[in-house]
Amino acid sequence: MNELAPYASRSEDSRGRRYLLPPDPHRNEFQRDRDRIVHSTAFRRLVYKTQVFLNHEGDLFRTRLTHTLEVAQMARSMARRLGLHEDLCEAISLAHDLGHTPFGHAGQDALDEAYRAAAPDAGGFEHNLQSLRVVDLLEERYPEYPGLNLCFETREGILKHCSRRNAQALEDDEPGGVGRRFLERTQPSLEAQLANLADSIAYNAHDLDDGVRAGLLDYEQLLELPLLARLHAQAIAAHPELVGRRLLYTLLRGLIAQLIDDTVRATLKAIEQDGIDSADAVRRAPPLVRMSEATAAQVQELQAFLRDRLYRHERVWRTTRAAQQVIRELFTAYLQRPDELPEAHRERRPLEVAVVDYIAGMTDRFALREHMRLFGPGSLAAELA
Ligand code: MG
Predict the structure, then answer these.
(1) Is 212 helix (H, G, I), strand (E, B) or coil?
(2) Where are the chain's structural domains?
């Protein structure tokens, strides 16, 4: 364990768990959370869930699981340099995408739309809130309580965003709990802020890699971005013979190193400027984990590039549209014929929530199999499979 800075979270100061758990003589509380997450069913499903490219489109694209591992690695790396609690950072990172639907953002949008249409007053589907539902409620592992019974600090980090109405519902259920900060507009721990930023560093870098691998982006295009053009020039200056895959990875490695280094420096500066000297002061301050203004602007350019050239690429769109139809049709089918749901889900009310929980928990291939079972071969799912 690294030396903790005064503004780090400390497991002995944790606000605790919803159900009392005697201390473990060999592990701190955040380590226990991480271990509980790794052993969860939802964690194992991440391997068969889409990040950007559908799981079966190729064996080397990121899945939710490999994305998650990259986020955890980067968050830990930065946490160590900043004197933050590595285990807490790791636990939050490993759990951050547990509530994601099959088929990535396309699946999430489709489920949100279907849910809003069926239950206009329910507030729709939010994957952060769903991740919290998974660890609080849906995992079935312990005799004494539902969910994984994680620490407040881990749960707080998992709930990255939350609408005001959902925050109010959480607050009603658990006064002073993880919904409170969205009502009071305060910040979560630095570990939570760091895991959040590590998420974006990871996907910005690996989506470039996957985009090139898929043949949807070419290397020359990347150099339209000044940030990448400069890293390319540095790579070539050091290794003039560099081409192909090694050149791409040298570029991406340079990108990750720069973003991480910039984040550590800008965050330390913000902590110093605001005179932050405790974990409590972090919560009252503005968001402190950040990149420098110049780098943040370049990252925005990179994200716009990814959006226009990759996420909205015709080939990505085509599978996106088909995947959305699978989700929509599954939603309608279960709602009309609850008997098709597994027994444990069938009895739960409201039925819309049972259907949302069931679909959100599916892997890509399970969703396709279910769609084929309900709609027959030759259906849309066959086209995607
Ligand atoms: Mg993520």
Answers:
(1) helix
(2) 26-315, 329-384
**What is the mean predicted confidence (pLDDT) over 272-281?**
98
Q: How far is the CA of 231 from the centre of ligand 1 (A)?
A: 25
Q: Residues near 161 by Cβ (< 8 Å), separated by ≥ 6? A: 126, 128
CB 187 within 8 A of CB 280: no
d(CA 197, CA 82): 14
Q: Compute the distance from residue 67 Cα to the ligand 1 centre, in Å.
A: 7
Residue 288 corresponds to which tokens in the numbers above?
């402190």
* Model pLDDT, residue 329: 96
For ligand 1, the distance from its centroid to the CA atom of residue 126, given in whole angstroms, is 13
78 CA from centroid of ligand 1 (Å): 17
State the fold for domain 26-315.
Hypothetical protein af1432 (1.10.3210)
Computed over every residue of the chain, the mean pLDDT equals 94
Other C-beta atoms closer than 10 Å to the C-beta of 227 total: 20
Give Cβ neighbours of residue 67 (< 8 Å, ≥ 6 apart): 51, 97, 202, 203, 206
CA 199 / ligand 1 centre spacing (Å): 5
150 CA → ligand 1 middle, Å: 20
Task: Please return the burial class of 172, using the count of CB atoms within 10 Å of its CB with bins 0-12, 13-18 and 19+.
Answer: exposed
Give the distance (Å) from ligand 1 centre to CA of residue 68: 6
Residue 128 and residue 159 in contact, taking contact as beta carbons nearer than 8 Å: yes
pTM, rounded to two decimals: 0.96
For ligand 1, the distance from its centroid to the CA atom of residue 102, given in whole angstroms, is 13
CB atoms within 10 A of CB 181: 18
**Ligand 1 centre distance from Cα of residue 234 (Å):** 29
Interval between CA 71 and ligand 1 midpoint (Å): 7
Q: Confidence class of residue 53 from pLDDT cuts 50, 70 and 90? A: confident
| Distance between Cα 124 and ligand 1 center (Å) | 20
Q: Is the pLDDT of residue 379 over 70?
A: no
Give the pLDDT confidence of 333-359 residue by residue, as tens digits.
999 999 999 998 988 899 999 999 999
Q: How far is the CA of 155 from the centre of ligand 1 (A)?
A: 16
